[in-house]
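Researcher: I'd like a structural prediction for the single chain below. Treat it as a standalone chain; there are no partners to consider.
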Amino acid sequence: MINSRWLIVKKWIRENPKEAIFLGLILLVGAFLRLYKIDEYMTFLGDEGRDVIVVRRLLVDFDPILIGPRTSIGDMYLGPLYYYMMAPALALSFLSPVGPAVMVALLGVATIFFVWYVAREWFPAVAGQVSIAGLIAAALYAVSPTVIVHARNSWNPNIMPFFALLVIYGLFRIWKHGQFKWLVVIGVSFAFILQSHYLGLLLAPTIGLFWLLAILKVWGNKNIRLNAIRYTLIASVIFAFLMSPLVIFDARHGWRNFTAMKKFFTQRQTTVSARPWTAIPKLPQVTSLATTRLLTGKNEEAGRWTNLVLVIGVIGIIVTLLRHALVKRKLSNSLKAYLMLLVWLGFSFIGLGVYKQHIYDHYYGFFFTAPFLLIGGLSQNMIQSAKNTGKILVFVAFVFLVIINLAENPLKYPPNRQLQRTKEVSAKIEEEAKGDKFNLAVLAERNYEDAYQYFLEKTGAPVVDIDAQRVDETITEQLFVVCELAKDTCDPTRDPKAQIANFGWSKIEEEWEIAGVVLYKLIHTK
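Model: Treating it as a single chain, here is the predicted structure.
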């Protein structure tokens, strides 16, 4: 099987040498932008520390995981699939947090290839020519600053782009070709998506619609209909199995997740609107923001103009689709792809339009790849319809977008070195603790103890979490406080943070400045 596939790849390379070279260059650039000094650029704060603590306990103590991380909004918990996905990478890297970050980066490179592959199939070039759609979509995806930032950190939402595209491609295969075995892939992928971020629920309408269209298309053929139903049941069982740890946890804890989710969607004053039409006035703003963040390197002026061009292109696609519907003509491969893209983006933007809170970049994860596929397809159409003029316009627009994306490339900024700082401070704490038990607190704007605690636990340092219900057992004779704030604002003995307040009356015995932070050793006041 492997040899036959390799022979197919070699044959394709011989027949398409130019495209193979261009694709290779794109993948190399994409890999460099994601992997260069990843250990220095990767985010490693409390959330990342919490994740590797959980996965390390799975690997070292064989402690099974039934629940994933807590969401920042809604007091809900995700499922544990991402933790199990992290486990091999953490094990292969000898428990270094860099391992899972590299895993995400490599998945990001695979997504670049996948974007090219899907665009090439959806918007085929004239025989003998390179796939403009595939190369433009993949190249822009490779250099997008927002995509790069979210492809070099170990974080559960960062795997969504790959699995979301896998869902959409699988839907296309069952809708166009009747290949219902892809439902199994969709079931697995959708479970990964939902356990990455609950905004992945916005993919459900697209999945349901195209599954229904595929079923209706083959309903008259009994054998194919039964095959479709069989694969639907198999996919449903696999999806339920992958989601079961979350359900088991919920059942054992009074359905707290279900209650939080119900509250999130029913108390809509500050979260979401139940009326989809309220999103319509917000669509220009939502689409322009997404275009700016994904396609134009956060350049707002370029984002507005690019969004306008895409809107004009989408209107043209809709007119063509309506014309085909009126005369009952069969849709071409490209028009089917456009229809799927528009439905995917349509449900996505309506969902974001009814959301009442701030939209962060990672919220786009379930449709990260869609705008790139759309712009690739429109570029292919422009070249095929306008020929020389189209080539010039597409080339100028492509070069412009590449330049403004590279202008905001994350590598132009110095690395944060969060991982190195955390290791250095943790080593100092362990040294100064002198083998005695100690408590730990972190004063910071957006960090907490788990990043430092991971390295302390890894080396066997006797760090003890203070439990307000077991004060006598968990309060030690020394408390180390890491202050990541400006030194003149650090007040470790009087800060109201729970770890400090529960430690009781204290005084500073020693302090050190390490890697840009201040480390204090507190002892009890006699």
